[in-house]
Amino acid sequence: MTIDIRKVTVLGTGVLGSQIAFQTAYSGFDVTAYDINDEALTAAKGRFDGLAAAYRADKMPGAADGKGEKTAAAIALSSDLAQAVHDADLIIEAIPEVLSLKQDTYEKLAKLAPERTIFASNSSTLLPSAMKDFTGRPDRFLALHFANLVWKYNTAEVMGTPETDPKVYQAVVDFASAIGMVPIEIHKEKAGYVLNSLLVPWLNSGMALVAGGYADPEAVDKTWMIGTGAPNGPFRALDVIGLTTPYNILANSEDPNGQALAKWLKSNYIDKGKLGVATGEGFYKYGA
Ligand code: NAD
Prior knowledge:
globular, 2 domains, alpha/beta, N-(1-d-carboxylethyl)-l-norvaline Dehydrogenase, domain 2, Rossmann fold
């Protein structure tokens, strides 16, 4: 039996869920976006309008002719979970990164969604194995992980559990391509997938050089950029990401070196309100 994906429901319309819903609808799929209440759905509407403007500004194909505005209007909004998922071929879950919340949600979906429906989690840090037993269909469940600003930074990391049916995995890889993503196939479960497995140690190594008094942030970035041809070094990247998430990752690590870096980041930057580009200053100063 071939797996046909046409109707897609996205759970959670926050930073990532809104982008996934919009990009999927922009690519011609029938999309329903679910969030917990009308207030969240009103915010979602605003996010979709903002994305239409961003696609226009970034000259995405068709955006100049109003395709983004049409897309924003075409996404069905719902705060009724049963109604939102009753005919979905694929559900992409982008709700907060709280394991118990995700498990509860999958338990509900297991009862409400048709048997054929594939479930995919956009979780950044949780492994699909921690959720699969709540889905009622571990063979039709996997992780599909997008990067922030999906239309520009268009990787989609696809990671199953040992129980994911290979045909389901392939259908999700094909779906990712169909919505303009570059699918990255991950052969077994790995915290951090590919991207963060590379990025996090790189950022940490940069911070260890500065915290250890070996070099200044500017010197570290300059070395990396001149020595490898990369457009950015780790400190410029940290400022763009925002310092709070890297701090949380370090503070929660079991490695004492990670804990020490967390303290350094907190007392020198976070406690001084230097959180990166968003606050006008991090390792560098921005704006006026
Ligand atoms: P967010 O806080 O911006 O959005 C979460 C949304 O989920 C909100 O709209 C909230 O109202 C809604 N929500 C809360 N409880 C819900 C429930 N029970 N059912 C449905 N919706 C519910 O979060 P985000 O940054 O979009 O992250 C969502 C997921 O995407 C997380 O798993 C995160 O790890 C992952 N992710 C985030 C990024 C990122 O850069 N922000 C990148 C890749 C993956």
